[in-house]
Amino acid sequence: MNMYRRVAFSLLLFVLSALSCFADEPTAPRSAANIAYRDSVVSLLKDEGFVPSVDEDGDIWFKKEGDNLLVSVQDDTAPFYVQITYYLSSKGMDDQVALLKAVNNINLNCRCVKCAMDDDNGVVLLSVETYNNSAQVFMDNFVTYTDHLLLAGRLLAGAYDPDGSKK
Asked: What sections of 30-131 are H helices per DSSP?
């Protein structure tokens, strides 16, 4: 009976170690410069009339024209790598080939916007990536960045053609 307990205990340890591979990694702590830059961006967004919020990962969420946008600040020192992302739901877009054609069309025609499909979460990601030394440089280009993202989202919806009737 003691041998069966050892085998069961060993099997339990193996299963627990295998399951630990799927655990979420804790986010890396951000530097003081990164946090100060992020807080400056939040303040500037508030000054522009937006209502930004910072999530548990330290990313900034806000709405523009009714659409949720995410600002993610990377790097520990300036220049900071900043990514503005617009998530579009791909629900209702069941024709994967037509959706892929629409995504490729955005990547071809909107050079400053990256477009990718995330099949696992059922979304299409549109993003603009930039390096900024200060929050003021970010805000100087903010309107251009977000306008390009929202325009690309509208172009994506217009380019999606499940019937294949468009060329």
From this structure: 32-47, 96-109
If we measure between CA atoms, which residue out of 72, 57, 84, 102 comes closest to residue 145? 84
Strands, DSSP E only, in 53-155? 53-54, 60-64, 67-74, 80-89, 114-118, 123-132
pTM, full prediction: 0.74
Here the tokens at position 118 are 């995330």
- Note the pLDDT tens digit of each residue in 62-105: 999 888 899 999 988 889 999 999 988 777 777 888 888 888 88
Q: Please give the structure tokens belonging to residue 151.
A: 């325009």
Mean pLDDT over each residue of the chain, to the nearest integer:
81
Give whole-number Cα distances, 17 to 23, 48, 87, 121, 156, in Å: 10, 49, 34, 26, 43
